[in-house]
Design goal:
single chain; about 170 residues; alpha+beta; three-stranded antiparallel sheet; two-stranded antiparallel ribbon; 4 helices; globular; Reverse transcriptase
């Protein structure tokens, strides 16, 4: 998995840099530094040393950057298709939401399979209907207009604001 991430970052840099450098650092040096970072993430748990063999710590800012680059590379395929059909697209970190109105379920399945073939680590959850939950939103198609409202997952405890006696709303 780490090799896949390093290759993806390399591809991203090669496609988006005019030269082979980012400032004074070459793409090869960036790949070497990523290799050191990804393959040497260790942590201590109950007096045992473990190595992260997949992904990177979500507490490190570099992990967010790597995630965004990884998603960006295959997100381009989705955006290209959705722009052709004037569809709605939303993304939060590594989660994507989009509408699919100009084709049937079989065409959507073929489209998603083509993305999976190029990026086997990408996972999809396909929800089909006039309304779907996405993160903390409930999105609904009402006669061609998109509406949203807050969605609370039934298995997750809801939030409540603290109440102070004698304090006006």
């Amino acid at each position: 998995i780490h090799k896949n991430m390093i290759d993806t970052v390399s591809y991203f840099l090669e496609e988006n840099l005019v030269t082979n450098k980012l400032g004074q650092v070459t793409i090869q040096n960036i790949k070497n530094l990523l290799h050191i970072f990804l393959y040497n993430n260790v942590f201590d748990y109950k007096d045992q040393i473990y190595t992260l063999t997949k992904g990177s710590p979500n507490t490190m800012p570099l992990s967010d950057t790597l995630s965004n680059i990884y998603v960006f590379v295959w997100q381009k395929q989705i955006l290209k298709q959705l722009q052709l059909n004037n569809e709605f697209f939303g993304r939060y970190k590594d989660q994507i939401f989009f509408t699919w109105n100009n084709g049937n379920e079989e065409q959507l399945g073929s489209f998603l399979q083509a993305i999976r073939d190029k990026s086997p680590n990408v996972q999809f959850q396909k929800l089909i209907g006039s309304s779907v939950p996405f993160l903390n939103a409930f999105v609904q198609n009402q006669n061609g207009d998109l509406f949203s409202r807050i969605h609370r997952h039934p298995l997750i405890q809801g939030y409540s604001l603290p109440y102070e006696v004698g304090h006006a709303k």
